[in-house]
Amino acid sequence: MLIRVLALTTAEQASMTRCWWQWIESMMAKDVGAVYEVLLRRHVHPLATAGPSAGNFRGKVWYASLPEKVRLVSEQCGATANDTVLVFSDLDVVALRPYSALAQAVLPPEIDLAISGTLDGASWRGVNSGFYLLRLTRPVCQFLARWADRMSDEYRQGRKPEDMPLMRQLLRCLLYTSDAA
Description:
This protein is an alpha/beta fold. The chain has helices at about 15-30, 60-75, 100-105, 140-155, 165-180; strands at about 1-10, 35-45, 85-90, 115-120, 125-135. It has a five-stranded mixed β-sheet, with helices on both faces. Helix 2 packs antiparallel against helix 4 (about 140-155) and helix 4 (about 140-155) runs antiparallel to helix 5 (about 165-180). The longest helix is centred in the last third of the chain and has 19 residues, at about 140-155.
């Protein structure tokens, strides 16, 4: 099984990045049945020089990096085979089992996108847009492109792009459209 791991970090996450890198190397060494490709992209934004708090959670650099996070995954469309499992992480989630075991558990062949979230009764209260597994099928790529465009539009218009609520909104539209078809 080929697993492509895409991870996004910022200069402000240096210690988290070092911990994650040690963890992924250890996990890959133990997961002998899988082949891994790991792309770690460090997002550097001009706002990073705006002061020590600019990169904090919900700070200027954090908001500026959100559209980049979605674009990074969207850019993989066409460059990755449909049967490749793609894992995205913004480094704040570490799986307790190898990614190959996780992929087998939550991403069987008939499922193209697996996202963790909080289920409240019959509705999603939240989704974690910083960690998910997917296959880059045409519907998933269309979803990613739409999400990336909306995030970039929000940021260009001077609003603070909220990736999780926007992802939840687009997923809801996708699910209701799929159910109606």
